[in-house]
Amino acid sequence: MTARRYLPALLLLFVGSGCAALIYEVVWFQLLQLTIGSSAVSLGVLLGTFMGGMCLGSILLPRRIGAVHHPLKVYAYLELGIGLIGILVLFGMPALTGVYTSIAGTGLIGILLRGLAAAVCLLPPTLLMGATLPAMARWVKTTPEGVSWLGFFYGGNIAGAVIGSLTAGFYLLRVHDMLVATFAAVALNVLVAAIALIIARTAPYEMAVEQTGPVEQPKGAWAIYVAIGISGMTALSAEVIWTRILSLLYGGTVYTFALILAVFLFGLGIGSTVGSALSRNIARPRLALAWVQMLLAGAIAWSAYMLTQSLPYWPIDPSTSSSPWFTFQLDLVRSLWAMLPAAILWGASFPLALASVANGRQDPARLVGSVYAANTIGAIIGSLSASLLLVVWLGSQSAQRLLIVLSVMASLLALDAASSDAPESAPSRGKMRLGSTLLIVGAAMLAAWLARNVGAVPAILVAYGRYAASRIGQADVIDMREGWNASIAVTRLSNGVLNYHNAGKVQASSEPQDMRLQRMLGHMTTLIPPDPKRVLVIGFGAGVTAGAVSIEPRLEQVTIAEIEPLVPVMASQHFGPHNFDVYKNPKTRLILDDGRHFLMTTNEKFDAITSDPLDPWVKGAAALYTREFFDEVKQHLNPGGVMTLFVQLYESNPAAVKSEIATFLEAFPDGVVWGNTQNGAGYDLVLMGTLAPTKIDVDKIEQTLKSPQYSRVAQSLSEIGMFSATDLFSTYAGKRPDLDPWMADAMINRDRNMRLQYLAGLGLNLYQSEAIYADMLKYATRYPDELFTGSPATIQALKAGIARQQGR
Is the pTM for the entire model greater than 0.90? Predict the structure, then answer.
């Protein structure tokens, strides 16, 4: 009775522990992505290592720490250990980054080294995290009531995880940085440990008989372990697939991922609580587990229908929202509607599985550890297979069909185990066999019917994401494919314009304003350096920027770093005439890797580097806009080298644009901003940075463009309305001395805070490009004498062109 009165307090400790764990997870994933890249391979390695450590911790603790130790003290020391390692990971990561980047590469060796880097950082703390539930399990006995409390502990841990994911995504990292977030988690660990130690001093621990050898498992237990493993596998596979679909619908921001994770965990917590309450009094938990898995087949089908055939067509236009916070509320409701039923059932599976293998004689720690390990092993298989195999090989539609079939299989396994619970009489056994046969036939028919009705991911959703419902009938989707890192689409408008879609929006097109930006980005990259023989292009997109680089006569090699293998294939097929068939150019070298990771792990130097990444609000893209990344770029530029960078004004806000420009100009103090306008209004920008002050000889570049060998470059520029070097450089829009007052309140985007992705994530539904550009130009009224040189006539024409472009 003494132990029972402390159980509610221990439940609260697990809430705090779960909250800290999710804060760490978010921070560590962000830290390690900066080191080993943001590709599907990198994320798969990260996730597998994280859950693998949890699995090992749950198995090893009962075998390494005997039952003679007070559970609360063990739990407290584990929490303190997690906090200590959390601090070590935060400050030890730079050392790891230096070692890893000095030896890392691509291919199989590169993947293995990424895994090693992740393991060095994540295995120690996750081992301790995985051990916390088994450690506390020894406070209760493996009676129905005790097993019920183990389920409540698990549910409390998940409830804390919900709080942690939302707190990290919406506050700690948005307002502060990884340092503050880490120490907030450490403070929680210390608080939880202190309370546990205080309780341990007043709560006597009566050790149950310690087991020194193997304990006979209940009959049919193996089927339960396999069933709960399959349940974990389907849960994590579905989470990966559904997150991918929902990120198209909501926009792939850090807020979207935090919301989806919170909803999923919220459902697990509800299910675990309900399952724990049921397991206390239910006579046949195995039968209940079987029915839960059967219901899961229907719940997965429900989610698949909602995500592919319902939600994308809800009549919602997010651009009409007066605040992003209203949009987040709507996204939360839609996520709950689509995912909550399945998440609740997955949450209920764990406590029911515990009750299904408990016999009242096991070491509670070993009981929890074994079930938790089985569930986690399944989760590892599910997350890795969904991230790296299922979506690419089968597609989301077939992958979800497979999950339905697997859930039915788990149900039948649990049902087979439940048959051992049937009464011993022959008539009852006979009825059980007949019922099982009929159920198997019915389950097969149900699985086939549910799987058959799972729809494909709508091509219009892949193309237009959150605006899918309002774009129906406005474009023909001529190609759509699902890749490792992204789903890609190509559309054709009625006027023949081609659009390249990634992250649920148009990323490039043959529209005049987009072609102008892409050609400007490519040609400025090669016309300004003195000898552009080797150029790096980060991001393939439609290939137009890389194509503009590729026709530079002095070029010897253009290296293109692209994270998604589908992109160059589809761009080559559909945009070849617009990108000069750069994919087939013998000077082109394609690197399939995260652009930042490639640059950090190569010793090559380039005469110019141009970056055309995804929107900065896309989770992970902000890593290509940090001060540290720009410093890395400078280390890979030859003397006289140039970097150019695309910055969008549409679907953004002033704070995000200021952050991008201020961060770039802090790294490149002599940098220049060039403007690309549409109908006289701001549309997007090109930023140019150099290692030293640069004087652009406009007359010399004009003569270069008139030479026969540059006829293709001159033709490319004329196609976007630029018939001379004066036209090209009349797009001047400012330098740092002029723009400093405008950028006075800008937040510098650094690795430690990734501030840009949080700022930009609040502006993805806004269209303020005209106002942002007009406000910026108020400060760029001075003609930059130090930037241009040329004949008096050329300079006079340039001044007039700049004034005209700026509307003066």
Answer: yes
